[in-house]
Amino acid sequence: MENFTYKNSTEIRFGTDRIDNEIHDAVAQFGDKVLLVYGGQSIKKSGLYDRVIDQLADLQITELSGIEPNPKINSIREGQKLAKENDIDVILAVGGGSVIDASKVIASAKFYDSDPWDLVVQANGADRMKLDQVPLVDILTLSATGTEMNFGSVISNPETHQKLGTSGPNSPAISFLDPTLTYTVSKWQTAAGSMDIMSHLIEQYFNHTTTNDASSGMIEGLMRSVIKWAPVALKEPENYDARANLMWTATMALNGIVRSGNEGGWTVHGLEHELSAYYDITHGVGLGILTPRWMDWVIATEPKTVARFAQFGRQVWNIQGKDDTEVAQAAIKTTYDWISSLGFPMTLPGVDIKDETNFEAMAEGAIKSSALDKVAYVPVHKEDAISIYRAS
Ligand code: NZQ
Ligand code: ZN
């Protein structure tokens, strides 16, 4: 096991009936000038917007709406302007990962005087870790990214075809996780979110440290939770146990705990962020298409990985058998079948990516921004990345 430091100060308030009683004080403790950030119409349709506004009636609310999926840098620019003009004390983000990710960068951008894209690419001397950050309270409405308890954000710049990860010094101050708020999430987004959770676990399970049984066991248990509950949530959108398990599993999958003591990993996210950057597709859907193709490529390229895939097959999918290669291959097929059963289009043409025009640029972008040739579970070079896109 590698050395590690783990610190995470996000306060999680999990469960039903908490928002109406607690949101006011949770926000107001940081000040009375609030930037309320949200996406499209989902929180208005569900009534959540009215509930929040009622509770915060005595505070000064500035609104930033219209944060799109795969949040764009222009929204951050708008948020920066509002945060500065109104001298915002606290941000309240209400929505999915895109809304919370955008809010985290706005929280830093209030204290930066130039273009906030610098904060994402760390250009022009910009360093988010050294900037102050407005405290962030969030109400999560979609189980997927884990952003509610981590330091990361992923921001897109359509002009440059870049979708890049960035980290700030703080995770959210308080995250409200009420599973009933996810009852209205569509089948498409429920499937995509569940795949995102599964992918976060896969990316961290297949890493360079082979002796961290604490991590492996936690990840295997969390994977079994997604595998069990995603189909239930799709069939019965208002099944509390399904929504609650997906929500807490999503948070646990990417709050840094399960990767503590491990080194390396993470390939498919780098490849997927390029798909979203060029084609603006749903993150989890891109992961669902690429993941089994990456797995096929890994065991074909590096036979030493078969043992780990066999462990994955036995512990996660309960595949019996003595021959590691057979169990490993069955595990990849079972993973493919589970993803497909969630209702995904399982090919790139299925999401309207019908030719290879951008594969070369995407492969170069993925390797550059995610160092896939250095830190990936099995190093990925340009031709490898192109072959994984082609196989998809
Ligand atoms: O905009 P609204 O109207 O709110 O609709 C959203 C949006 O259209 C809708 N939605 C959210 N909650 C809903 C709902 N619809 C009905 N009922 C509800 N309760 O769902 C759509 C997608 O929302 P989005 O926030 O984009 O989804 P998600 O939470 O999956 O976030 C995806 C983004 O997070 C990034 C992804 O790359 C992508 O940009 N990621 C962030 C990570 C992080 N910060 O740690 C890690 C991840 O790997 C990921 O890259
Ligand atoms: Zn993800």
- The structural domain count equals 2
Report the biggest beta sheet as strand number plus sense, adding barrel if it closes: 6 strands, parallel
Percent helix, as a range, is 40-55%
CATH topology type of the largest domain: Dehydroquinate synthase-like, alpha domain
What ligands are attached or bound here? 5,6-dihydroxy-NADP, zinc ion
If you compute it from the alpha carbons, what radius of gyration comes out, rounded to the nearest whole angstrom?
20 Å
What CATH architecture of the largest domain would you give?
Answer: Up-down Bundle
Mean pLDDT: 97
What oligomeric state best describes the polypeptide chains here? single chain
Helices and strands, in N-to-C order? EHEHHEHEHHEEEEHHHHHHHHH
Strand order of the largest sheet: 1-8-5-4-2-3
How many helical stretches? 15
Name the poorly predicted regions. none
Overall CATH class of the largest domain: Mainly Alpha
Strand content: 5-15%
Shape field: globular
Structural account:
Helices cover 49% and strands 11% of the residues. The protein contains 15 helices and eight strands. Strands 1-8-5-4-2-3 form a six-stranded parallel beta sheet, with helices on both faces. With 392 residues, the protein is an alpha/beta fold. Helix 14 (359-370) packs across helix 15 (382-391). The two termini are 34 Å apart. It folds into two domains: 11-182, 3-Layer(aba) Sandwich (Rossmann fold), CATH 3.40.50.1970; 187-391, Up-down Bundle (Dehydroquinate synthase-like, alpha domain). The mean pLDDT is 97. The site of 5,6-dihydroxy-NADP (NZQ) has 33 residues, from helix 2, helix 5, strand 6 and helix 7.
